[in-house]
Amino acid sequence: MRHLKLLTAVAAFAALGGCAQAPAAKPAPPSFWSQLHASSGTGEYLFDSLDDITPGAKPSGVFRPAAALVEGTVVGVEPGIAYASGDDSVTPRVVPYDSEEAAIRWASVVIKVDKVHAGKLGRGFASGQIRLRVEQPTGTTLEGLRTSLGTAGRGLFYLDSALDRARRRPAAQAAQAYQATVQLPIGQGVFIEEKPGAPLIAPLADEERAAQLLGGGVQTRSAGSGATTLAQLRGRAQQSACETGTATDQSTC
Q1: Is the separation of the CB atoms in 209 and 190 below 8 Å?
Q2: Are 113 and 129 in contact (CB under 8 A)?
Q3: How confident is the model over 54-106, as pLDDT tens digits?
C-alpha cells in the first residue's frame, strides 16, 4: 500500500508538471489588410467625401475623381514592381522585386470583379480581373500575404489606370509596362468586408480619415456600433453615381 501511494503521488506530480509545460496558444496570424496598412501623415485632404471621388464628379483643383467604382473579391497577390529609390523621384530605377536594392515595393492585389457600379474600367481589365497597386511595407512578405488571403474579403474600390494617372515625364519601359496592368486606389478608396456581414474597414486610410469617409465612428480596426456595412456603402455609392450620370445600372437610380 505504501508503494502504491508513492506511485500515485509521482503520477500526480508528473501530470501537474505536464500541464505547466503545455505550450501557450499561438496568437492569430495577422489579417491580410493589416499587413498592408502603413501609417501615414494626415496632411491636407484634396476632397471632402466619397461623392467627390465618384466617377463623373467635378474635378477639384489638381484632384481628379476615380474612373470606375468596382465591387470585387480579393483572390490573390502577386509581385508588382520595385524601385531602388522612391518612385516619385525624378528618375526611379526599376530593380528585381526581391532585390536587396529595393527601397520600395508595389505588390499587385488580384481582384475578381463582381460588378462595375459606375464609370468604366480601361487598361488592365482582363479575364474578369484587375490588379490593384498597393505598397508592400518592409517586413511584409508575399508568402505571409498569401497565407492570410482568407481574411482579404471583398469590397468597393474607387479606381483608375495607373498609366492614365502617370505624371507627364519619361518613364522606364518596365515601369510603363507595369503601369498598364494595374489600377490605383483613388483617394485611398478601398473599403473591405473581411467576412460576410462584418463592418467595413478602410485599410489604406488612417483611422480618422476612414471614419470621415465611412460616416461613422473609427472603424478601421474594430467594429463599433452603427458601423457601415457593404450594403449601406453600396447604396450610397450607387446614389452618388446616379447623380453624376455614371451609374452602369440605371435600375438602381
Answers
A1: no
A2: yes
A3: 999 998 777 899 999 999 999 999 999 999 976 666 677 899 999 999 999 99
What whole-number distance in Å separates Cα of residue 113 and Cα of residue 72? 4
d(CA 69, CA 75): 18
DSSP state of 169: S
Cβ contact 233:214 at 8 Å = yes
Angle at 63 between CA 92 and CA 121, to 5 degrees: 80
Distance CA 225, CA 33 (A): 22
Question: What global pTM score does this model have?
Answer: 0.83
231 phi/psi in degrees, rounded to 5: -60, -40
Dist CA 106 CA 178 (whole Å):
10
